[in-house]
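Section 3.1 - Work completed
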Amino acid sequence: MTTQYGSSLRYAVILTCCGLLLVAQVVAASATLQLRDRQPVRRARYVMGTIFEITAYGAAREETVRAIEQSFAAIRRADETLSHYRAESDLMRLNGSASQGAVTVGPDLYRVLEEALRFARLSEGAFDVTVGPLVRLWSEAAERERAPSEQEILEARRRVGSAKVKLLPERQVRFAQEGLEITLGAIGKGWAVDQAVAVLKRRGVRHAFVSAGTSTVFALGDDGSGDGWEVSVRNPIEGDPLATFRIRDQAVSTSAVYERFWEIAGNRFGHILDPRSGQPAAGMLSATVVAPTATAADALSTAAYVMGVEQGSALLRSLNLEGLLAPFPGPGSPESRIIHSPATSALEASSSR
């Protein structure tokens, strides 16, 4: 499955709604019963090359429907800004001109770039939105059925590096390298989800679930249980759940490559590249991250996948985030690693190998 924003690089995050759970406070229990008496409004739209779905509870159905439609409008605006496949998008205009001089961009693109560069620094380059030249190299290699040479990878890597993107005052952006190309596939859907959630909140919706394809989700409030929304991450090989999270006002994103790969001379190479080496990231089955925003979860799941179990775990712990890092099973491979928050844990079930 090929999509604009790389949802094929992720595997299914499955939403399951459980029955009413016990709650400690009478006020919370009362609110939950009222919520469960309402029928949720569900809508889905094809945007950014994948299916976005919004499920929301509201006091008035018509108002909830309008809030959802406005949320989809925000997602479409994000696509028009961040798309790498729309020639007229803000991102493509930037890619076409920023090597020649500073380009003034809109506030949304500037903010996404600020976030992208922050995650690049936090991950020490494992997450990098300037990986475009390497993606292009491996795609062309698959077409000619010959793996790229070390020299070709080296040449492409010279045009990669977030430090070469200069964010200037007055929302100006300049590339310090000819041929540099930004692609926001590892952060764009998360940003779009956050924009949709912001609209729902402004319209007074307090309980909703927003999903971008099957890779990145945000849970607002709860599902009628009084205790958030339940999200299960499945094992793409065996089909059973790797872990279950119960989240409230949080996002979950999972990165994996089992559906999306390049096939060259009978060998399969995953589509998540390590920008530091220019090679496909290897050794990981999946990386799942729970974060306060979908933008952060989207970017950091990619970073953790590239970094692997040990370094990825250290990154999440340094940020006080939860997650599940699962390597490919096999002789000598490390165990799956569950990263708990020292405060309250969203994780309900342990992983399975």
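Second construct:
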Amino acid sequence: MKKRIKKPIRKVLRAISRFRNRFTVRQWILLSIFSVLLLVGALMRIPIKYEKTEIGSLRYSTKYKEEKNLELNTEKIITEGQDGKSETKYLYTQSLFDYIFRRSNVKKEVLEVEPVAKPQDEIVLKGKRKWQYMMCSDGSYRYFKDNEF
């Protein structure tokens, strides 16, 4: 059994020595360096993919309603707005070289956006009433409405 194992190993060693004998030492060193550089260059081009989940915010919107009983340029907030939240899943792709040396050549793709909490709209009342009052000489107030302007 030992002879069977040694025979193929001897054949491989002979083939390597025949191949090595074709080149000078200097050529062999240059060939080895070139092969290693080629291998490293090929390995550095391998893409690395990883997923990451980020939590972001969804901005609330403001809705305005007109109110006849409020003065012009007066605003009253009925409902405060609240931001919502969403989970976004990203797929990042970059080469092994960029990953090792912390370079910023990253391709970012959105895989999935899932709202966690919906934003609550802010409702604001805007005054529509145009009126003005002034104090008269006798100490009373007089009001002017839209049609009196």
